[in-house]
Amino acid sequence: MSFATELRCRECHRSYPLQALHACEFCFGPLEVQYDYDALRRHVSRRRIEAGPPSLWRYRDFLPCDADAAIDIGAGFTPLIHAKNLGKVLGLPQLYLKNDTVNPTWSFKDRVVAVAATRARELGFQKLACASTGNLANSVSAHAAAAGMEAIVFIPADLEEGKIVGSSIYGPTLVKVRGNYDAVNRLCAELAGAYNWAFVNVNVRPYYSEGSKTLGFEVAEQLGWRAPDHCVVPIASGSLFIKIRKGLNELARVGLIDEPRTRMSGAQAAGCSPVATAWAERSMNFRPQKPNTIAKSLAIGNPADGYYALVQLRDTNGDCGSVTDDEIVEGMKLLAETEGIFAETAGGVTIASLKQLVERGSIHPDELVVAFITGAGFKTIDAVAGRLKPALEIDASLESFERAYGALAHTGVA
Ligand SMILES: *Cc1c(COP(=O)(O)O)cnc(C)c1O
Ligand SMILES: [Zn+2]
Known about the structure:
414 residues; six-stranded mixed sheet; alpha/beta; binds pyridoxal-5'-phosphate; 15% strand; Rossmann fold; binds zinc ion; globular
């Protein structure tokens, strides 16, 4: 049982049934799930949510599938941490980190896949597929395994070993495509027409993207039922960025929080920054880019929701960071050394952008800021491995230790 009523075109508002459809037949606008908000308002309460499971399924009433038949490997309800040390470095006393590195396959993609896979099975699909920059492939593979479905996942051929093994372990058909993500995505759009498979981010994308709302729900609940003043979110396709705000808006619409005034800022790698570049040029039309960055999980040169991300930056008085590969590595180290969180390159993009936005005055010291850390560092160890303090190697004796440790003291490192 769900409160979803129909799919609706974002542009011309035509209605469609809740099937595996993603684009309007008349104007090609994206389709979005609509809900019966009056019924929802009567049904939900803070208490009902708080009594739910410690996973994203505590927000079942806001999701477009039957939670009683959920494919649940434990996604969501991740820690929100008051980052006092990093906040001190950046001059933000009210800085919080949403640590989504601790999801079952170590990225926020478990949220979108949990919802998309559950809806896909409900619609009768037996095969789950996706076009992925890496993390999505991991999550689709894991959820398919748990659901007893077959997985066929498509990735760019040059992905990190951690992301490849992180899919293969679950036994999917893993397809490495010689080309970048945008080529993989075009191929999958074609395949979705030829095969009756659920491509989680193509033909069932309206359900997939709803999963990202749960980050907005959780943050509000974890702050004691209030919206943050400012969110900093990494942007690949732009879906996560706009859906976090949709989550906050929905909570207000059913009366669970006050009307959010949350400013939404984005984070991109300079080597793949179509949204940040358009924003800096004060343009609402981004130009597609050819990605070249270590932040491979964000390397989408032609983002599906890029236009809506720009609209949201404008409407919420946000800003968008654009950071170099060196700044990304520094961001990963800063986060680990101050807060004990080892994030992947996308987390480095978020932290480096946060720093950039504070320095340029776009984030104010008195704001309650939430930065979203979306994936774990063990998937991208090559980005930092050669740039960390080397280990001491010693014989198993006190003397050998003291010699090595003493030498460190002389260099002032210890
Ligand atoms: C996919 C991904 C994102 C952003 O996803 P959108 O396509 O913008 O919704 C952010 N961080 C990580 C680690 C990701 O894998
Ligand atoms: Zn339309």
